[in-house]
Design goal:
By secondary structure, this protein is α+β, with helices and mostly antiparallel strands. It is built from 10 helices and 10 strands.
Length: 357
């Protein structure tokens, strides 16, 4: 058995960026991302908004509120925008006392702005105020970095240290880390693709290699809260997945892009539960949910992931806000994944034997 965690610590931290750039995906992004997502340095922000009213109404309303964003640091700037609650489960105050947010800029930020080219952005917030909850969404950020290490067909994320300030009083409501998520359309454009809006699709419409890679990634992070071909409750495709294709009207060779990882075993949020039909008591228990039709491609993708294993450990090591405990736990969780795929025979036994028809 390969001792992946031991090998990981032999690589110096400064190599993380280089290794992460060596994605397992077949091609590199054709274009660089927009300025906000070009590096991983932590932004320092102050956001002023009527947070008392926004959080009180979040469970039943996603109405926008006027807000101000102040970027501190070497290139300070101030921008006006609207702020609204977003999401579904995390707007429930029984789960989160502070909702995830959506930023919508009133006017197009200037070319000198780090937010140049941005219109609407998802902001992942702290859910609750305790330090332990901060680690949950830092682990979700880590899942995005793992997806970036795997393929350019993934959403980038940018960390920020944020002071949330009540607009009327100037009182700091919370000072927490959060992170912005790249818009799917921007991820599509840098890969010379188009985002696809479509109803449920057939599995046969998905590019086999992309589908296999997607399923292996979801197994890597222990995520069961997804579908790459249909949506929940009759909604458009797909559940916690976006599709991109060669054209806006493409019907074949579609590529799934994963997002929203808080129900994954890697994050292991207190409110996360596995789907009842799978009869799994803990989201930490991995279950392969890829399709049998893609087994040949899954073997090839598994071999590529094994060859590039160091990039994934470096992705974990490159998250500065993970606690030592979270980093150790994540490393061990990743170890078990690589044990499951350490050979074609093991991958067949541990994953592909449970594929879906």
């Amino acid at each position: 058995m390969i001792q992946y965690s031991a090998l990981r610590f032999q690589t110096l931290c400064f190599l993380a960026g280089l290794m992460i750039a060596m994605t397992v995906g077949a091609i590199a992004s054709a274009k660089e991302p927009k300025p906000l997502f070009r590096d991983d340095s932590v932004l320092k922000l102050r956001i002023e908004a009527p947070f008392k009213e926004l959080t009180r109404k979040a469970a039943r309303s996603t109405d926008p509120y006027p807000a101000t964003l102040i970027l501190e640091g070497a290139a300070p700037e101030q921008l006006s925008f609207t702020l609204s609650a977003r999401g579904k489960s995390r707007r429930n105050r029984n789960l989160c006392t502070f909702p995830p947010l959506r930023v919508s800029f009133d006017e197009k930020p200037g070319e000198a702005s780090i937010f140049d080219g941005q219109k609407r952005l998802k902001l992942v917030t702290h859910c609750r105020g305790s330090n332990s909850y901060q680690q949950y969404y830092m682990l979700e950020y880590t899942a995005y970095k793992l997806s970036n290490a795997l393929t350019p067909y993934s959403l980038k994320a940018r960390m920020a240290e944020i002071d949330y300030v009540e607009a009327d009083t100037g009182k700091v409501v919370a000072s927490k880390f959060g992170f912005f998520i790249e818009d799917t359309d921007d991820a599509a454009k840098r890969n010379e693709m188009k985002e696809i809006d479509t109803p449920d699709i057939d599995v046969a419409q998905i590019a086999p290699s992309a589908a296999a890679r997607y399923a292996l990634f979801q197994y890597m992070i222990g995520n069961l809260d997804w579908s790459m071909h249909n949506g929940p409750d009759g909604n458009d495709c797909c559940h916690n997945t976006k599709l991109v294709g060669a054209t806006a009207g493409a019907q074949n060779d579609l590529i799934p892009i994963a997002y929203d990882f808080d129900y994954s075993g890697l994050v292991d949020a207190p409110y996360a539960v596995a789907p009842e039909e799978l009869r799994i008591s803990s989201v930490r228990t991995r279950r392969y949910r890829g399709f049998c039709a893609h087994n040949e491609e899954a073997r090839a993708q598994g071999a590529l992931i094994r060859e590039n294993y160091q990039a994934f450990y470096d992705a974990v090591n490159g998250v500065p806000t993970l606690s030592d405990r979270s980093r150790r736990s994540t490393t061990k969780y990743l170890d078990r994944f690589f044990e499951d795929i350490e050979s074609d025979e093991q991958l067949e036994k541990r994953l592909l034997a449970a594929c879906r028809d």
